Amino acid sequence: MKMTRKEFLRVMGLAAAGAGAGTLFTVVTPKMLADTVAAKADAKPRWAMVVDFQKCRFGEDCEQCLAACKEAHNLPEVSSRAHEIKWVWKERFETVFPEQQTDYTRQAYVKHPLPVLCNHCDDPPCVRVCPTQATWKRADGVVMMDYHRCIGCRYCMAGCPYGSRSFNFEDPKPRVARPNPEFPTRTKGVVEKCNFCEERLAKGQMPACVEKCKQKAMTFGDLRDPNGPVRRLLAARYAIRRRTELGTGPGVYYLI
Amino acid sequence: MRDRVPIVCGLLIFVALFTVPVWRGLAAHTPARQPELKLPETEKHCVAPVEYMRRAHMQMLIDWRDSAVRRGERTFTAYDGRKYNISLTQTCLGQCHVERKDFCDRCHSYAGVSGPYCFDCHADRMLKTAAAGADGAMLAAQRGTR
User: pTM above the 0.80 mark?
Assistant: First the structure.
């Protein structure tokens, strides 16, 4: 049988489409769907935090969370602002949520700074850029740091859109006011950041800032638990996250 | 051979100077033995046999580090079945070797092994601290409600 060029192309095109469709159908079988659902059901928790803007009393010189973190993690007192080591820190509302304010709403937030910390993103840019895998994301959502492995290149600091990472320009050890031997200090030349108190989570404790907040403005829990305190708050109130347009998927929510 | 006297004197001075470390050692009564380690009073067994620890304690510390930091596993089962919390400061120093100077440093300085830089960051001995937060059960309770 003699086939024209046109007929040949038509047959090949149809065959390719058929093969493609076949692949599509085999990709998602009911069994695979069931497996995915099962995997999600017994997955680890996804830790997240909710900060209640209405309850937080930062503007009235309440700094319980900062002090708790400083004590728990041996944060040094650095005089120069450029060399500051920040795990959880105070930031003005208009800096945290620049897109949320207008000329008329600004005065409502003027005396109302917010606590900001590492967002423990779903897709953390710091992890993507780290050349030594000194920082990585755990299954429970905590973005971890291995200080042993950090070479101090500061790519992660450039990658983080929230400024949540700090570099040790100087040896922090002599500048720790009251050393806590249960947690290591860091050394000159490594980058550090909030670890969601993973050392406390391992013992079943709440993060230090959450525990010490007198106003109960911070709530911590499992985002995958529909009846957990975090999900209940998020279901009840309007919450915003920092710079979601970047697609990082922050794990720290702010109730407005 | 008129220079015999100065040559012999020079040689004697050279030999004396060259062997100064030996004389100093003899004068100080330093034994040519292994360094004496201060062993813990309460514990009789290490987390691994002594031979293994002598040879490979550095490897074990690296394994502990990876296990705690990377995998989040903080319990170590020893060769005799005992379980230990994986922590340099709290277990190695807190439970047994109270002073790093009396244990780690003795061999390291004897053998001229520079480092380790563990104690650049980790506390080199356990300090007395206030008890951990009392409401530690909060998270456990929260997880228990699921």
Answer: no
pLDDT in tens, A114-135: 999 999 999 999 999 999 999 9
Q: At which residue do the structure tokens 């009564």 appear?
A: B29
CB–CB of A120/A142 below 8 Å?
yes
- DSSP assignment letter at B69: I
Arithmetic mean of pLDDT over chain A: 89
Q: Report the residue from B126, B135, B146 with minimal CB separation from A211.
A: B135
For A224-237, the pLDDT digits (tens) are 999 999 999 999 99
Task: Say if A180 is an interface residue toward chain B (CB within 8 Å).
Answer: yes
| Closest residue to A186, CB basis, from B121, B133, B136 | B121
Q: Determine the average pLDDT of the residues in A44-69.
A: 90
Domain ranges of chain A: 41-255
Q: Using alpha carbons, select from A222, A180, A186 the residue that is nearest to residue A201.
A: A222
CATH assignment of A41-255? Answer: 3.30.70.20
Q: Mutate which of B139, B143, B145, B146 to test chain A, going by most A C-beta atoms within 10 A?
A: B139
The answer to whether the CB atoms of B72 and A225 lie below 8 A apart is: no
Helix (H) or strand (E) holding A137: strand A135-137
Select the more confidently predicted residue: A200 or B1.
A200
- Contact yes or no for A206 and B123 at CB 8 A: no
A206/B69 touch (CB, cutoff 8 Å), yes or no: no
Interstrand relation of A252-255 and A47-52 (parallel, antiparallel or unpaired) = parallel
- Give residue-wise pLDDT tens across range B52-86: 998 999 999 999 999 999 998 989 999 888 999 99
